[in-house]
Amino acid sequence: MISNNKYDYIICGGGASGLLLSNALISDSFFDNKKILIIEKEAKVDNDKSFSFWDNESNILDRIVFKSWEKAEFKDSEFSSSFNLSPYKYKMVRSDRFYSYMKKKIDKASNFNYLNATVKDIVRNSNQNYVKTDLGNFECSIVFSSIYEPKKYNFKKYPLLNQHFLGWTIETNNYTFDENKIRFMDFSIEQHEETRFMYVLPFSKNSALFEYTFFGGDVIKNSEYEKEIKKYLKNEGIKDYKIIEREKGVIPMTCYPFFNDNTDNFIKIGTSGGWTKPSTGYTIKNSIEKIDIIIKHLKQNKPLSKLKFKNRFWYYDILFLDVLVDSRGKGSRVFSDLFRNNDPLLLFKFLGEKTNIFEEIRIFISVNIMTFVRSLLKRISNFSV
Ligand SMILES: Cc1cc2nc3c(=O)[nH]c(=O)nc-3n(C[C@H](O)[C@H](O)[C@H](O)COP(=O)(O)OP(=O)(O)OC[C@H]3O[C@@H](n4cnc5c(N)ncnc54)[C@H](O)[C@@H]3O)c2cc1C
After folding, report:
1. Does ligand 1 lie within 6 Å of residue 209's CB atom?
2. Residue 285 Cα: closest atom of ligand 1
3. Residues 23, 119 within the same domain
4. Which of 80, 108, 259, 369 is buried most, with the most CB atoms less than 10 Å from its CB?
């Protein structure tokens, strides 16, 4: 049990963003004299998810990457494209390794305390914050919160599209994968009036993750995802296999301005802060980049309310989400147009928000522009209501 209840910083939630932020604070001697508490309600030992991302530089996760790939493939029912990812690499980190690696660093840091408890409330005042938990109450100057509470928000003006997925990691007996190539998206599967694709990560010549993914409203029964994975494996000619791991999840895709909740001494981080890229669901690389900005901000003693994380890509994403929401089974066409008409590396650069405006114009004219114009007009009328 923790005796001291006064801290400089409290991090609520010790998942991906809370642990990445802890790591960044531990790695910078500027924060050595700050007393920091991180509060997490779960044990955080299992491989409950895998974190994948693409990158053309090294980052903190490189030390614990489980596998990286240099080639990728995009498919739909009429078209397929295989390409080298260089200068990018697609990387995957297992969460069990991630949690234990980060936890060890926290345990070693003398200015950090880790508490397994449930945060019940965060009371915000202009000078001091109070974090109430089932194991006691704590006081601090700054709170970073990754606790995601979607029920508190009204998503009427900002559509919320959930990315649902269920994946099987399988081991095959007589089937050999190309272990250097990921299948980024395969839209050749039945769309069921939604946007659905298969995502495949081969880990070795005889093991791979097959993840059935769709953008939609409601969760479907596990048996429905599994039926689709079985069908896909059969079509691929994979008959003799055993399932060695399962992953299931929902990632919220929305442009809701969560950052409006931030104050000078309270900031939302991770998915709860809107760091999930609304058009793709990728979060982990974004989190590393946003944490870098927060660290610089803290060192300059600037108020956290100034951090809005809203750039022109936010506007592109909102239109893209509107198009997907209205697409009624035709969302895959947007992705197909993108991959058919562009250099895939430019798309990875664009999705990573590193393109310039000229590159972005090239991408916009490669898709059915009228779909986006209609969505823009609808969006303008939506905002003016
Ligand atoms: C199955 C799955 C796979 C994913 N794969 C990828 C991927 O490949 N690439 C990618 O970029 N993104 C991926 N994501 C999206 C995103 O990266 C992850 O969801 C990531 O974990 C988000 O980090 P976070 O810190 O916002 O949330 P979390 O990691 O969920 O952390 C929030 C933490 O807060 C804790 N918590 C909640 N309420 C309380 C409370 N009241 N008191 C104390 N603690 C609390 C939770 O237990 C949790 O540990 C995936 C998501 C899922 C669900």
Report:
1. no
2. 11
3. yes
4. 259
For residue 367, what pLDDT is reported? Answer: 87
Phi then psi for residue 172, to 5 deg, are -105, 160
* Sign of torsion over alpha carbons 344, 349, 350, 356: negative
CATH number at residue 16: 3.50.50.60
**Residue 267 and residue 294 in one domain:** yes
The band of 385, judged by pLDDT with boundaries at 50, 70 and 90, is very low
Burial class (CB in 10 A: 0-12, 13-18, 19+), 107: exposed
Q: Name the band, by pLDDT with cuts 50, 70 and 90, for residue 372.
A: confident
Residues spanned by the domain of 248? 160-253
Q: Is 201 in the pocket of ligand 1 (CB under 6 A)?
A: no
- The pick from 251, 277, 280, 348 for probing ligand 1's pocket by mutation, whose C-beta has the most ligand atoms within 8 angstroms, reads 251
Tens digits of residue pLDDT in 22-72: 999 999 999 999 999 999 999 998 888 999 999 999 999 999 999 999 999
Say how many domains are in the chain: 3
Is 290 a domain residue? yes
In a domain, 86, yes or no: no
234 and 120 within one domain: no
Ligand 1 neighbourhood includes 37 CB (under 6 angstroms): no
